[in-house]
Write a structure and sequence with these properties.
The chain is globular. The model has no long low-confidence stretch (mean pLDDT 90). It is built from three helices and nine strands. It has one domain. It is of the alpha+beta class.
Length: 215
């Protein structure tokens, strides 16, 4: 009888536990979004780039967007850096509570929207490149930072790609994963946060990636 009751209660407990983690994740992203707004206020309206260095392998250490927010005093530092030169944390606001320790690699679970198509996406960030809030017409409708996972390498990523420019699959590509009961969380350019099902993000619903924006 006890085993039967435990079997009945366990799914409900797991569901409640993940709901709590998803809420904590949204709280983290809200703080990160507020930090980005403060950073922009001190940097001529520019949000953080993916990295201050002009390209991969050039002046990248301690210049990732996570480093910029922590070292600039916009976010509290983690108790433990997984690898500080690469901006990777093991705890604190920059760590998604639903990420396992063995999944941590290029971030604590959150990533900037990065894209290779320089002629698109007013909300994209890259090396030495960041959105300027004053130039964006629909800041409340465009994604900036979200849950992240790279399915090819099976770990967290520092950036994720537009699903309309690079197909999202479960065998490759950095993307927003179905981490929270089939969905993922994100913060938008204006600082507000939202959670949506995986297919909402993958389908670029409401053009949240800015793929159709005319520049």
């Amino acid at each position: 009888m006890i085993a039967i009751l435990a079997g009945m209660l366990l799914p409900a407990l797991n569901k409640a536990r993940e709901s709590a983690r998803a809420s904590s994740c949204l709280s983290n992203l809200r703080q990160i979004g507020q930090a980005e707004q403060m950073y922009a206020g001190n940097n001529d309206d520019f949000l953080t780039p993916l990295n201050l260095g002009a390209t991969w392998g050039v002046n990248n250490d301690n210049n990732w967007w996570t480093n910029l927010l922590v070292n600039g005093g916009y976010l509290p530092p983690p108790k433990v850096w997984h690898w500080e030169p690469s901006g990777v944390v093991k705890d604190g606001v920059l760590r998604c509570p639903s990420v396992n320790d063995n999944e941590i690699s290029a971030s604590g679970g959150y990533a900037l929207f990065e894209n290779v198509a320089a002629d698109k996406h007013p909300n994209r960030a890259s090396y030495g490149c960041a959105p300027k809030l004053g130039r964006v017409r629909n800041a409340s409708g465009l994604i900036q930072i979200a849950d992240s996972y790279h399915y090819q390498y099976k770990n967290t990523s520092i950036g994720f790609l537009c699903p309309k420019c690079t197909e999202w699959t479960f065998s490759s590509t950095a993307q927003i994963p179905p981490r929270h009961r089939g969905g993922g969380n994100a913060v938008f350019l204006d600082g507000h946060v939202a959670g949506h099902p995986y297919l909402y993000w993958k389908g670029n619903s409401d053009d949240v990636f800015g793929h159709e924006v005319k520049r």
